[in-house]
Amino acid sequence: MEINSYIYRLKNSHTLKLTIGHQYNFTNRENEIALQIIKNNSYKKIAKNMFITYGTVRKHASNIYMKSSCINRKDFIKKFKK
């Protein structure tokens, strides 16, 4: 599992350099998940891509929405989509 996570990070290192949550104090993991939420990936797909559980993605997403003062996923995407 850890090897797969490492491979994911290598493949997506250009994406992970983008930071949308610096002003909201997102953790690195929250930033990774936030970028995928903005791409409109489902929580299940994010979990699969990042080799973490669905529940972990939901918890991070909840923290992301709270930190960015968004009510839900739709509000978050609207706020950060360019």
UniProtKB/TrEMBL annotation:
Cited InterPro entries: Sig_transdc_resp-reg_C-effctor, Tscrpt_reg_LuxR_C, WH-like_DNA-bd_sf
Task: Provide the HTH luxR-type domain boundaries.
Answer: 23-80
Q: Which domain of life is it from?
A: Bacteria
Task: Tell me what this protein is called.
Answer: Helix-turn-helix transcriptional regulator
Starting at the broadest rank, the lineage of the source organism is: Bacteria, Pseudomonadati, Bacteroidota, Flavobacteriia, Flavobacteriales
